[in-house]
Specification:
The protein has 413 residues and is α/β, with parallel strands linked by helices. It contains 14 helices and 14 strands.
């Protein structure tokens, strides 16, 4: 049946897209086929045919997605139980491997229990909302640089919120002093901020939480697997696991798989299991992914080889780019933000790296980062050799000169 003439929907959508294009933030996805046998390479479907490129922006930080133990676990899980979960956890998807995975995650973070979600975005969005809704009159104190998934969780909660300046414990302290001492309070922050590479002052935040009777919720998505003796994240590295009430993480980055999770007290996890819509009303993670994630976590609990190789690559990249004068944000983590500060030039730099140098680094533009802080986000991994690192530094120098980009040091907004 033909729709009766009324509103021009296609024109409205097109106008919105035109505005995004004009602002230089229209997203173009590059088609890649990663080469599991040759990390960090992928095959790029260029206009003139397939080309082999070096990937420098993957969140598969340690290359665990292609580790033999992880791949074999996924294959065995598929052979044993099939590729689908069969339903939501409360209907038919509560398979034995997912229960086993939650036990591994609880052990990793030294918590009583853990709960697996379909993604890190969902575990934040539905987890934060569920917690806050269960606390009458809850006040959420959220770091200004928190991820969109956290912002969405705060919004869904309907709770009152206040934003404290990024990693500013003095500002957080002031806000806590202004709050009613008897009121439920939830401090939400990230341990490692993925766009700038900054690390939160966990102990200072926990000190404030203890002093003012607040609950702490930390997103360790970009830290789990990478930091701490067993890969439990920044909280483990800093000896703060017991001080954090709720730890949220992902299986999709350093663990190389898919899914998100929270680890907390048994009561907190039971609350989410029983009432979180983003958990209850969605299909469970499939057995092959769950088995792979379990294998990856177990391996990284006892192996430091991958973390050490990545740390060496990160240090080498930072040294090489600094020697070449490439403007970077000072980062204490594995994230290397190469600053450009203009969306069109950022896209041009990314395109030139791919077209001229067979190097793939996606541009990071607004709204992922504030306007004027557009960048290339480089993530060195254990498979980036010294030869590849030198090639990257040389290629960036060529691009900077060719496009007339500024070599001046840039600061994050």
């Amino acid at each position: 049946m033909q729709r009766r003439a009324s509103f021009d929907y296609e024109a409205a959508f097109g106008t919105h897209l035109d505005r995004i294009r004009f602002e230089g933030r229209y997203r173009i996805f590059t088609e890649l086929a990663r080469t599991a046998a040759e990390p960090p390479f992928a095959m790029y479907r260029a206009p003139d045919g397939l080309r082999r490129v070096a990937v420098w922006c993957s969140n598969d930080y340690l290359g665990m997605s292609r580790h033999p133990k992880v791949v074999e676990a996924a294959c065995e899980g598929a052979r044993a139980m099939g590729v689908g979960a069969g339903g939501t956890r409360n209907i038919a998807g509560n398979h034995a491997p997912i229960v086993e995975l939650e036990g591994e995650l609880a052990d990793l973070h030294a918590k009583e229990a853990a709960l697996v979600f379909t993604s890190g975005y969902i575990s934040n969005a539905t987890g934060i909302a569920t917690l806050a809704r269960a606390l009458p009159g809850c006040l959420i104190l959220s770091d200004a640089d928190n991820h969109n998934s956290i912002i969405e969780g705060v919004r869904q909660s309907g709770a009152e919120k206040v934003i404290f300046r990024h990693n500013d414990v003095d500002d957080l302290a002031s806000l806590l002093r202004d709050a009613d001492a008897s009121r439920a309070k939830l401090i939400v922050f990230e341990s490692l901020y993925s766009m700038d590479g900054g690390i939160a002052p966990i102990h200072e935040i926990c000190d404030l939480a203890q002093r003012h009777g607040a609950l702490t919720y930390v997103d360790e998505v970009h830290a789990v697997g990478l930091y701490g003796p067993r890969g439990a994240g920044i909280a483990e590295r800093e000896g703060a696991l017991s001080r954090i009430d709720v730890i949220e993480g992902t299986l999709a980055k350093a663990f190389g798989c898919h899914g998100g999770y929270v680890a907390a007290s048994a009561t907190t996890v039971d609350l989410m299991r029983s009432t979180a819509p983003g958990f209850i009303f969605t299909t469970a993670l499939p057995p092959p992914i769950v088995a792979a994630a379990t294998a990856s976590i177990r391996h990284l609990k006892s192996s430091s080889t991958e973390r050490e190789a990545q740390a060496k690559a990160v240090a080498s990249v930072k040294a090489k780019l600094a020697a070449a004068g490439i403007p970077m944000l000072a980062s204490p983590s594995h994230i290397v933000p190469v600053m450009i500060g203009d969306p069109l030039l950022c896209k041009a730099a990314s395109d030139r790296l791919l077209d001229r140098h067979d190097i793939y680094v996606q541009p990071i533009n607004y709204p992922t980062v504030p306007r004027g802080t557009e960048r290339l986000r480089v993530t060195p991994g254990p498979f980036h050799t010294q030869e590849l690192i030198t090639t990257l530094a040389d290629a960036l120098s060529e691009v900077w000169h060719a496009l007339g980009l500024s070599f001046a040091t840039r600061e994050a907004a």
